[in-house]
Design brief:
Structural class: alpha/beta
Strand order of the largest sheet: 2-1-3
Helix content: 25-40%
Number of strands: 3
Strand content: 5-15%
Length: about 110
């Protein structure tokens, strides 16, 4: 690795935690986040390019595994985000949990 200069390994206990650790390391004051389904690499791959253009972190999540994403989003006071994939991958209830929304609150769409 010396050929690449100084390097730092960032890794969590799972891919959810790792994505949040990367976000914490590289995004000091995010204005939004891009959420991608954790087990579908095309969403994450394309989502990384999209997140870069938005100057936003890419957070991996999925239905019933939103704890790390919710912690990051709510700790940074984010109220905006882009969710990749359909509701079969990241359910509306998971999005509401991540963004601290009420159960009956409508999720804005474009």
């Amino acid at each position: 690795m010396a050929a690449y200069g100084d390097t730092t390994r960032i890794g969590g206990n799972n891919r959810f935690e790792t994505s949040v650790l990367i976000a914490e390391t590289f995004f000091e004051n995010p204005k939004s986040a891009v959420l991608a389904y954790a087990w579908n690499y095309p969403d994450g791959l394309c989502g990384g390019a999209l997140a870069s253009t938005m100057d936003a972190p890419l957070i991996l999540t999925m239905t019933n595994y939103e704890t790390q994403a919710a912690g990051y989003v709510q700790n940074h006071g984010l109220s905006k985000g882009t969710i990749l994939g359909g509701t079969g991958l990241i359910a509306d209830d998971s999005v509401r949990t991540i963004f601290g929304m009420k159960a009956d609150e409508a999720i804005p769409t474009k």
